[in-house]
Amino acid sequence: ESGLAAWLRYAPLQGGESYHSSLPSHIVALNTSSASPVYVAGQELQQGLQSIYGKQCNVHHSSNGASSSIVVGTLDEYTKAYGSLNNTPDLIEDGYWLSTESSPVQILGKNERGAFNPNAPVRWTNEWDNLDGSIERGFAGNSNWFANGVIVSNLTRTAEYARLLASIGINAVVVNNVNANASLLTPQNIEGLGRIADVMRPYGVQVGISLYFSSPISGVKGQANLTTFDPLDESVVTWWTNVTSQIYQQVPDMAGYLVKANSEGQPGPLTYNRTLAQGANLFAKALQPHGGIVMFRAFVYNNLNETDWYADRANAQIQFFKPLDGEFDFNVIIQIKYGPIDFQVREPASPLFANIPKSNAAIELQVTQEYLGQQCHLVYLAPLWKTILDFDLRVDNESSLVRDVVSGQRFNHSLGGYAGVVNVGTNDTWIGSHMAMSNLYAYGRLAWDPTLDSQYILQEWIRLTFNADQSVVNTMTQISMESWPAYENYSGNLGEQTLTDILYTHFGPNPQTQDNTVWGQWTRADHTTIGMDRTVSNGTGFAGNYPPEIAAMYENIATTPDNLLLWFHHVNYTHLLHSGETVIQDFYDQHYAGAATAQTFATMWESLKGKIDDERYYDQLFRQVYQAGHSLVWRDAISNFYHNISGILDVANRVGNHPYRIEAESMQLDGYKPYTVIPFEAASNYT
Ligand code: BDP
């Protein structure tokens, strides 16, 4: 089992034959075109029944009169073939109706993709694939669809990916990096996008692309080269209108554009003193005749100027977007990362969700574990996402759950939803580790229905991906459910964010880089105090970006939850938490507790030997052993760092005292050269 089949293995069910008589013997898929999702759904049913139950069924494409059948089709096609239905629910786009009570069994969709209605219309993945085939923050090999600047000819894996995504309700994939490249827009690549769309379409998955804002002046081969990219310049408008039409000729159902502008070195409208809304609307207008939408990223900040101690990157989105509310075209959605900084292990919900009621909004989640162990650490993310989706922002003192904001329900928008950064690669596990695929599965399930319980989703995934053996389900559940709290504890608790190296790798401990760079992920730690004061009264004012009830909660140290204390407040190391512990001692205790929990994962995993296939067993075991070791590196590096900086002893005398640790210098080094590690706390005796 390489992992390639993910949760669509259709593993044989023991005693499957005993169900044969109660299963229908015919499948009717009401579409004759093999490129249609309904046709493909018929084939999937056939394959699933065969593989799970050993039952052979024929697939027909029109009503064959047989009563013992499963019919799959759109509601419209069904009524044409079988006559009208009583009691069908009202379906929205992509919604479907499944009845096993009727004869024939009905699986009917509002459209070909689709009595479950999705919670939000936009359920996309973002893939940060570069045209050269590399993937930014991808941990599973190279791109499945790009190589050497063009779109590859063999798109088999791309089609397989679409199949996986379809099964969890994802309806579009943005295929290239948000840090985009203008040469995506050459005629050759536009033709290639057409091919990607062709292999995804039978699964009901559309293609979207990221745009490079200054493409008109980038000398794109086969396109006009302008001297300006000013969004209000007529020649620029015409340029994008033309390119957009060319794309729609190849991809008539293109989902839309994703745009990262004026952030981290990406060009944008501010160069011409135009607003971000004017920039977004340039693309919105080009897309309107074709029905596409613009996902405009709220991740806008100017890192290079943030040398001012009081500047707070967390405020940037509010500063940029709040004044523009109401100025975005109807087909623009503001795509907002879940927290105000950047995919950290713990962040408060982005207050932008509460501040642009007139605009469509989507939440951006990260399936790829950029800051969260990069698939070398198991971190099941659904519980983290749920803390945000279920958070009540109390806009106008009324219930305003983030999930109701992005579904469009809270502020009455018909557009909104979810963007998940996945970054699948050519590796057979898709994202780099077998267990990390629970995150992709959970992402799709939550985008369809954010009220689902994290553990429920997880167990559904375990049964499909591994098996239903109770000990398999229980063990994997325990490891996964303990994984995010453990990672948070050993990588940076109390709202410190993930204390990784933030200069480039975002992997492994390096707390000192937090305060020594211009990236704005500060800890503000000195010899006596730690934490970032984001209050209105004394700090950066960030807390005031929330509606009054929430602002008041975070403004006050007494009502700020311990797990976000240092996110909002700057305190003495000896400050007492709600738990009664001091900040520094809790820091030590939790880093030890988190690493201790991670030690148990490998042992628990070992109890699964023989209960799952060896290939996946050993692959994951290797990762759990690695995580056990690396969690100690984390624990010691962070604890030592804060011990050195604060000078406060660990009451349990563990910090700096690791009798069982084998130091590198006491080993025979073969083929290694000692070098000085910075910060030294992350090293063995400085090297
Ligand atoms: C940061 C990543 C960087 C991305 C950026 C973004 O480190 O690679 O380009 O986010 O989301 O987290 O645009």
From TrEMBL:
Protein's UniProt keywords contain Secreted: yes
Subcellular location as annotated: Secreted
UniProt keyword annotations, A-Z: Carbohydrate metabolism, Glycosidase, Hydrolase, Polysaccharide degradation, Secreted, Signal, Xylan degradation
Active-site residues, as the UniProt record annotates them: 264, 342, 370
UniProt GO molecular function: alpha-glucuronidase activity
GO BP annotations, alphabetical order: xylan catabolic process
Its EC number(s): 3.2.1.139
Domain Glycosyl hydrolase family 67 catalytic: residue ranges: 115-430
Domain of life: Eukaryota
GO CC annotation: extracellular region
Protein's UniProt keywords contain Secreted: yes
Glycosyl hydrolase family 67 C-terminal domain ranges (all copies): 432-654
Subcellular location, principal: secreted
Function: Releases 4-O-methylglucuronic acid from xylan.
UniProt family annotation: Belongs to the glycosyl hydrolase 67 family.
Protein name: Alpha-glucuronidase
Species whose genome carries this gene: Friedmanniomyces endolithicus
Lineage: Eukaryota, Fungi, Dikarya, Ascomycota, Pezizomycotina
Portion of the full sequence shown: 17 to 703 of 827
